[in-house]
Write a structure and sequence with these properties.
With about 425 residues, the protein is an alpha+beta fold. About 20% of the residues lie in helices and about 40% in strands. The strands form 4 sheets. A 6-stranded antiparallel β-sheet has the order 3-2-1-4-5-6. Strands 10-9-8-13-20-19 form a 6-stranded mixed β-sheet, with no helix packed on it. The longest helix is centred in the middle third of the chain and has 17 residues, at about 190-205.
């Protein structure tokens, strides 16, 4: 079907590419030790892009029934091009792709019973008097095919299994919540499931005692779960689209030192077992490692085909597309290089300050500027290099670009967050901590 869509563009468009993706998602949700909900979502769709008379047009369909559907898809793509922007896309020619471990037989064959057993096992591990435990187990299957008019063509399959759990404990007017998850291309093993339990239990135990929050400009240890507010602006600023639009604070800063020397960020699209792994992006560019920040120096931005052409840059293999709409820029496995310190050493670096594990409202407001101000959902006071209790009714504020110049320490115990970002804990100096 996808080859037919490209064949139909000959003589009607100068260039064309198409991506077909078939997705199958099964999720089981558990509450109070019982299976509460089962959700199944299946969708297959075809996205066609053409360059006709120098203008780019896009159309998508989930109707893959035959010739008439493909003719309709082409007609809509050509109609879109009539109103589209001028852009001479440099579509990649046929080339070999690197090996990428995106598929696991065990994950692909996992059945309902096994998923239910995993979910119930997580619930049992976390069951305590007064704890309300919820969990979910999700299996995701994906098949992708790509063809363009320049001769590039490939296909691959992907799998993912994710397990998450959260605990809520209510004592009077005090509501305490803790969460953790794991996701990979294969089925998480016992050690990974036990780690979820250990992480959540540790959070709850540390939170039993409520203490007064500290105030002022303090050193703050952000756990991998809490540091998202700091790195979200940087992730946005490294997109070639924000650079092209002139809104990235990192635009025009290639080769310049913008952050502390302890900060290195690399996009790794070929890591085995990770959810962002892919042999090529959704525009046919072979995957390759991209070092975006090296020891505090800005080294590269991520580009898809269109933004690369408009910026006069090389595409980096970061195009991502859905059935409908234009491709956009998406990182694969974004790895923030860990340090060497364990948690005890990081707490000693803090001395007197705060540990932030969860924030409220991350991603809201003007993300690109780097400024943030968030109430904490879960945070702990540190005195004498030790956690002394949980704090409530406190907020933190700062600017990501300033804090990343003031990195006091980077931890060794990095965690995969969202399945495709490896994030270590960080200690930053001079974070504003205020009572609410």
């Amino acid at each position: 079907m996808i080859e037919r869509a490209i064949a139909l563009t000959r003589g009607k468009a100068e260039k064309a590419d198409a991506l077909w993706r078939d997705e199958d998602q099964l999720e089981l949700r558990f509450e109070s030790g019982r299976l509460k909900e089962t959700t199944r979502r299946q969708e297959a769709g075809l996205n066609l892009r053409v360059v006709a008379n120098g203008r780019v047009g896009i159309a998508g369909t989930t109707d893959l029934s035959g010739e008439a559907a493909m003719q309709d898809l082409l007609a809509r793509a050509l109609a879109s091009a009539e109103q589209g922007e001028t852009c001479d896309l440099a579509m990649p020619s046929a080339s070999p792709l690197p090996a990428a471990a995106t598929y696991d037989d065990g994950a692909a064959g996992i059945d309902f019973g096994t998923m239910a057993e995993i979910g119930r096992g997580v619930i049992e591990r976390l069951s305590r008097p007064g704890w309300q435990v919820s969990a979910s187990v999700e299996r995701y299957l994906e098949a992708t095919r790509f063809v363009n008019s320049a001769g590039q063509a490939f296909e691959y399959r992907g799998t993912a299994v994710s397990v998450s759990a959260d605990v809520m404990r209510v004592a009077g007017d005090d509501v305490l919540m803790a969460y953790d998850s794991v996701a990979r291309t294969g089925i998480p093993g016992e050690a990974e499931l036990e780690e979820i339990t250990r992480t959540i239990v540790t959070k709850i135990e540390r939170a039993e005692r409520v203490v007064e929050p500290p105030e002022g400009k303090l050193p703050v240890l952000f756990t991998p779960s809490g540091v998202g507010a700091v790195f979200l602006p940087i992730r946005q600023a490294l997109s070639g689209k924000t650079v092209l639009q002139g809104v990235s604070p990192l635009g025009g800063k290639l080769g310049e030192t913008m952050f502390a020397s302890s900060l290195t960020i690399v996009d790794e699209p070929l890591l085995a077992g990770r959810l962002g792994t892919r042999p090529a992006d959704d525009e046919g560019i072979p995957s390759a490692r991209l070092r975006v920040i090296e020891r505090g120096v800005v080294r590269a931005f991520a580009y898809d085909l269109e933004t690369a052409v408009r910026a006069g840059a090389r595409p980096t293999g970061h195009g991502r597309r859905s059935t409908f709409g234009k491709p956009g820029i998406s990182f694969s496995n974004l790895v923030i290089e860990p340090g060497t310190l364990d948690e005890a050493a990081l707490l000693r670096e803090v001395g007197h300050g705060l540990v932030v594990d969860e924030l409220i409202g991350v991603g809201q407001g003007n993300v690109i500027s780097g400024a943030f101000s968030h109430p904490v959902a879960l945070a702990f006071r540190v005195d004498g290099g030790e956690i002394t209790g949980r704090v409530k009714d406190v907020a933190i504020a700062g600017n990501a670009y300033d804090l990343l110049k003031r990195i006091r320490a980077v931890g060794a115990e990095a965690k995969w967050k969202g399945g495709s970002s490896l994030v270590p804990p960080f200690v930053f100096d001079g974070v504003n901590v205020v009572r609410r």
